[in-house]
Structure formats: structure tokens, C-alpha cells
Write a structure and sequence with these properties.
heterodimer, A: mainly beta, Jelly Rolls, 3 domains, eight-stranded antiparallel β-barrel, six-stranded antiparallel β-sheet, 3 helices, B: 219 residues, mainly beta, 2 domains, eight-stranded antiparallel barrel, three-stranded antiparallel β-sheet, globular
Chain lengths: 446, 219
């Protein structure tokens, strides 16, 4: 099929004179422009009218310098766009005015796109052709777009307080629209109601770094302050990752514990029974009850030694001074253990206090020959008529230490717990700017 | 004279049809609107030059829709309160008609449907009403009063010099759309979907001053 092609590129750019102030105006979007705002005097002109009828007279206004000047080109989602329009919009919440900036961008083939900026936070926005469905979940309004749920964030009445450049629709200072924002970071779903027409748009959060890469010619783009509605939480993924890591580490810990339990030698080195009869020493302070056990041999790598004491003390206590003596080196590791057991009945029923048994672990004992030196002391033991105390000493080598696992478990909990707190705090700051500021936003944490 | 060429009964210039089944065409030289009856062309009017819209689409633009090639052969242009839009008449590879709508560079493809359910009459329509055709639900988004601004190229029907036309646009959760054209009786239902420039793989589009051809393709 033969085709006829316009041999010359079509002009989009044309220059003319502002009918209000006589200044030069460059038009960038060709026949698409419906409204042009004079950059010199701010008069709003009808671009569709040959003589550029003045739609709204210039007013004395503070001049705003957009962060992205008109005519700037940049690449968004892989498409080259030129900044052709700018408007500042304002909402009033509890008597305080907040404003954000909206940039209109143009590519003659791909069409129009938008950027919004508030406090250094950017959103790349497309007008939606897919219709979201609104509903209420958990007592709050929400919107669903192709299976993704967006939580309602804020409803506001936005007023256009400043305009610059050209627009493919009629725009005026003072234009008002009701806006509804729904979030699912990093996406922001907005409904804008003007008269009877509702327009949906979808924003995607852009970081300052992404914007600097998109617009390399623009210098001095500010870094964001505060937390923005759809700013992705740096903790959202992290908290999840921390818990995943935690689960893996705890599984590893349980594995180690099982291996430890299965393969711990628990070698029996000594098991002896003794009687402590204080009456035997009564009145004779020169005689000590101290004695030494038979020598036993610890083998293998350095490991712990557990000494278990079992006694039949009743309504009484005893104290054992014990030393683990290394035969070869002559060195000793000394410690004392108290064993006491009392029981009885009172108005609350029967009670008991203390225990008849005790155990102590001595860590990192190298291989070698050892014996115990034991010196018992007793409170009322051996009092006249009292029975002597029978007790046994059992020495084992390489006994698994459960306490270590308990501590490790607690230490491993710290990163995800602190990560969770940081995440909740970030979400709290996000929702502090919403219509739901009074109720804590922490329940919205990831 | 064969099915593809004729001469303008008004100015004598050669008329070359891009579309073999064209019912109406516009003489490129004298802008006479011509209707074809068998082998004869009858002038039914004249159009003025179409106002500039800066659309990248032109007669001869090619593209693909659902993996089927099409070529743009004709155009209807409308104006409404928020600007202008064009309905580009496309001929698909199989010879059937489809429409490429370009409203401020928002693109949509559609085809004339044979409604499996009744098309609502215009006065009863309100924004938000739901309808279902061909097992797809649609919601009325806008009711548009449009002014016909002109035509060029080949059309599959006789259409010119309309004044005011009512259109109803309906949207859908997945980006499908429906348009009801109330300028005919009974109204015509078009079903289709919104598309991006890149999705349509458009070729032979217009070039623009100060815009490199590379800016046409998304990276």
C-alpha cells in the first residue's frame, strides 16, 4: 500500500506574544495546549483561540521557581519527557495550609505524564484507564486495583494556587477538586473529583536519587524530609528478612542442641556416696571433715565437668566447699555450694523451699587426672539426736549446656524485635500525616 | 476506473482509495466529501482544513493490535469541552474495520460490536451505571457532548456535517472500554481497550521538530 508521509517534521514549538504583558511565550505542546500561562505576568490564556483570549487576568503573586524548570527534559520509565506545565496545589488541614507541586510532562508520541513533589518526595503519576473498585475493609475505606489493595490515607480539597506553562485542559487559579488518596507503598492511588467527573491516577514513589538520574541536567534536587504517604519503608522488607533469618538461626540452634544432646559423651567419671555426721566432730574444732575423692581421668578435647550433688537434708542445710584439683599441675578450681530444704504446712497448705539436689558445671576443663577435695559444713546438722546427712557426688564429663542455648535464643531475638520497633515507628510517622493520625498506625506495619 | 482509483467529480484530481470497501472519502486537493455508489463518486459536501491536533497518527500509519496488523486509512475529528480527539479508521489485515482513538495522546482500539444485550437509550444514562456486553462488565465514566469537526480519508460509512454528537464512555477494571455513539439510530456500540503507544507498535507516524526519533521508543 502506498503511503503519503509528511516530508517535514511537524512543528510543536511556536512563539508568540502575551496579549496581557507583551512578553514572549514559547509553546511546547503544539495543538494539544488548551491553556497557556504567561511565564512573565501569569495571565491565563486560551491557547485554542487565535488571539489568545485572556481567560484569567494576571494577579500579583509571589513567583515560584519550580525545581524542574519548564523545558527540562528527563527520562521516566524509559521514555524521554519534557516539563511543559507546573501547578502548585494546596490543602488546608486543621487550619494549616500544606501545598505540593505537580509537573506536567510531555512526549509527542507517548503523551502526558505527571510528577508530584512534596518536601522532596516524588511520585511519577499516570492517569489510570483501569477502574479501581472502592470498598470498606476493617472499618476503613480501601480501593482495589487489579487484585492489589490500597488503604485509604487522606481525603482533602485541593486548590490550585499557582500555575505555569501549558495544559491540555482548561486550568485556572482557584480550581478546586476533592482528592482521595489510597496507599500501598510504593504506590499511591488517587481519585480526583471535579464536578461529576472522577479521575483515577496511579503514582509510584521515586527517590531523590532516581530523580537525579532521571533529570541529570537539573542540579540541587533536595533530599526528602519526613516520611511520605507511599514512601516504601526501609524496614518493611528488612523486618521480614530479619524474622526469616531468625527462624533459620533458631532452626540451626535447635539442630546444634539436638546434635549436642545426641552426641554429648556424659562420661561418668566418679560416683561416690558419703555421710556427714557433724556430731562426730562436735566440740573438737581441730578435726575437719575434709576429705579427698579417688582420682579420676578426664580425656578428649577440653570440655565441661558437671558435679551433681544429691542429699537427704531435711529442715536443714549443708554447705560444701569443693575444689577440683589437677593432679599434674597441682592447680585447683574452688567453689562452694549450699543445699537446703525446708517444708511444712500453714494456712495456705503445704510448702517447701530449696532443694535436696544441686549441680554445678565447670567449663573448659582440659584432659588430665583430677580429684575433688570436699569440705562439708552444716547448720544444725549433727545436732544432738539429729541424723547424719547422706549425700552422693557424681562427676560427669562433657554434659550438654542448655543454658547456653537459652541465652543464644534471647540474643537472636534482639535484631528482629528492634527491627520491628523501627518498622512500627516508621509506619507511625507515615500515618501521622493521614486522616487516621489519632489512631496508631503501628497496626499497619509490614 | 477500478476499485482503488477514481477521479474527483469536483476537481478532477486522482482519488486513490486506501480501503477497497470505502463508502466515503475526501479529495485530498479540493476537500470534496465524496460518496461511492458502485463505480460512481458523488460529492455530498466539502470540509475545511482540519484544525491542528499534533497527533502523531496520520493516514498511512501502521500498527498491531492483538498481533494483527492494521493501517490507518481515514479519520473523524471531534471537539469537546476539554479538547479534541480523533477516531482513526483502521483496516485490519483481514479487511475489517477498527478504530484507533487518540484523545490527547491517550490511545484506545475498538471495533463495532453487535450487541448481545440492548444498548441503553441516551437519556437514561448516568455516570456509574453498569452494563455488560460479551461477558464483560463496564461502568459509565463520562457522557460527552462532542462537535464534529471534520473528516479525511476513507470511511466505511457515509458520515459528514454532523453538528452535535453524544457519546457515552464506559470503563472497566482491566482497562477495557466501551463507547456508545448516539449520532446514529439505533446507537452504535464499540468495544475495545485502552492501549499505550508502545503496545500498538505504531509505524509511519509523524516526526516532530526538536524531538529526536529515538524519543519515540521506550528504553
Amino acid at each position: 500500500m502506498a503511503t503519503s508521509v509528511a516530508p517535514q517534521p511537524t512543528p510543536l514549538v511556536r512563539s508568540f506574544t502575551c496579549p496581557s504583558c507583551g512578553g514572549a511565550i514559547a509553546q511546547r505542546t503544539g495543538g494539544w495546549a488548551q491553556t497557556i500561562v504567561c511565564p512573565q505576568c501569569g495571565a491565563v490564556l486560551d491557547a485554542d483561540d487565535a488571539s489568545l483570549r485572556i481567560l484569567q487576568a494576571a494577579e500579583q503573586r509571589e513567583r515560584i521557581r519550580p525545581l524542574l524548570p519548564l523545558g527540562t527534559r528527563g527520562t521516566l520509565s524509559g521514555v524521554l519527557y519534557e516539563v511543559t506545565g507546573f501547578q502548585r496545589r494546596q490543602i488546608v488541614v486543621d487550619g494549616v495550609a500544606y501545598h505540593w507541586n505537580e509537573y506536567l510532562l510531555f512526549n509527542p508520541w507517548h503523551g502526558f505524564r505527571y510528577l508530584s513533589e512534596y518536601g522532596g518526595h516524588w511520585n511519577e503519576i499516570e492517569v489510570l484507564k483501569r477502574q479501581p473498585v472502592t470498598r470498606v475493609t476493617g472499618g476503613r475505606p480501601a480501593a482495589q486495583l487489579e487484585g492489589q489493595l490500597f488503604k485509604h490515607f487522606q481525603t482533602a480539597d485541593a486548590e490550585t494556587v499557582y500555575v505555569l506553562g501549558e495544559f491540555p485542559w482548561e486550568i485556572r487559579y482557584g480550581d478546586r477538586a476533592q482528592t482521595q488518596d489510597y496507599i500501598s507503598p510504593p504506590r499511591l492511588l488517587s481519585a480526583e473529583l471535579t464536578g461529576e467527573e472522577q479521575t483515577w491516577s496511579l503514582g509510584t514513589y521515586r527517590t531523590a536519587d532516581e530523580m537525579r538520574r532521571a533529570f541529570p541536567d537539573v542540579k540541587g534536587l533536595p533530599s526528602p524530609t519526613g516520611v511520605f504517604a507511599n514512601q516504601p519503608s526501609p524496614y518493611a522488607g528488612r523486618a521480614k528478612r530479619l524474622w526469616t533469618t531468625w527462624v533459620l538461626l533458631v532452626l540451626g540452634l535447635i539442630g546444634m542442641l539436638v546434635v549436642n544432646q545426641l552426641f554429648a559423651a556424659r562420661t561418668l567419671l566418679l560416683s561416690e556416696r558419703y555421710v556427714y555426721d557433724k556430731a562426730a566432730f562436735a566440740g573438737d574444732s581441730t578435726v575437719s571433715g575434709a576429705f579427698v575423692t579417688p582420682v579420676f581421668t578426664a580425656t578428649g578435647r577440653p570440655s565441661n565437668i558437671e558435679i551433681a550433688i544429691e542429699s537427704d537434708v531435711d529442715q536443714d542445710w549443708m554447705y560444701l566447699n569443693i575444689a577440683l584439683v589437677d593432679v599434674a599441675r597441682g592447680s585447683a578450681r574452688e567453689f562452694g555450694r549450699e543445699i537446703s530444704y525446708y517444708s511444712g504446712r500453714d494456712s495456705d497448705g503445704s510448702w517447701s523451699e530449696g532443694s535436696r539436689r544441686d549441680r554445678v558445671r565447670i567449663p573448659a576443663v582440659p584432659a588430665g587426672e583430677y580429684y575433688l577435695r570436699v569440705e562439708p559444713e552444716g547448720g544444725d546438722i549433727g545436732r544432738i539426736g539429729g541424723a547424719p546427712v547422706q549425700y552422693s557426688l557424681t562427676v560427669r564429663r562433657d554434659v550438654p549446656n542448655m543454658g547456653f542455648y537459652a541465652i543464644a535464643f534471647l540474643v537472636l531475638l534482639l535484631p528482629p524485635v528492634f527491627g520491628g520497633i523501627a518498622s512500627a515507628s516508621f509506619e507511625g510517622r507515615r500515618w501521622a500525616e493521614s486522616d487516621y493520625a489519632s489512631s496508631s498506625g503501628s497496626d499497619d506495619g509490614e | 476506473m477500478n476499485a482503488r482509483t477514481a477521479s474527483c467529480p469536483n476537481c478532477g484530481a486522482a482519488i486513490r482509495f486506501r480501503y477497497a470497501q470505502a463508502v466515503q472519502t475526501v479529495c485530498e486537493y479540493c476537500k470534496a466529501v465524496l460518496v461511492r455508489h458502485d463505480l460512481d463518486l458523488t460529492q455530498i459536501g466539502t470540509v475545511g482544513a482540519l484544525p491542528a491536533t499534533s497527533s502523531p497518527i496520520q493516514l498511512g500509519t501502521t500498527g498491531r493490535w492483538h498481533d494483527r496488523p492494521f493501517e490507518v486509512v481515514g479519520r473523524l475529528q471531534y471537539r469537546w469541552e476539554r479538547g479534541r480527539w480523533s477516531e482513526w479508521h483502521c483496516v485490519m489485515g483481514g479487511g475489517e474495520s477498527a478504530w484507533l482513538s487518540d484523545a490527547q495522546l491517550e490511545y484506545a482500539m475498538s471495533r463495532l460490536a453487535t450487541p448481545d444485550r440492548a444498548v441503553p437509550p441516551a437519556p437514561s444514562l448516568t455516570v456509574g451505571q453498569r452494563f455488560e456486553w460479551e461477558e464483560t462488565a463496564y461502568t459509565v465514566t463520562t457522557l460527552t457532548q462532542a462537535h464534529y469537526e471534520g473528516t479525511e480519508g476513507d470511511l466505511p460509512f457515509q458520515y459528514w456535517d454532523k453538528r452535535v454528537c453524544w457519546f457515552a464512555d464506559l470503563g472497566n477494571v482491566t482497562g477495557k472500554f466501551a463507547t456508545i455513539d448516539y449520532s446514529e439510530s439505533p446507537p452504535l456500540l464499540y468495544l475495545g481497550e485502552y492501549c499505550t503507544f508502545a503496545e500498538l507498535s505504531l509505524g509511519n507516524v509523524r516526526e516532530f521538530d526538536e524531538w529526536p526519533a529515538a524519543a519515540r521508543t521506550a528504553r
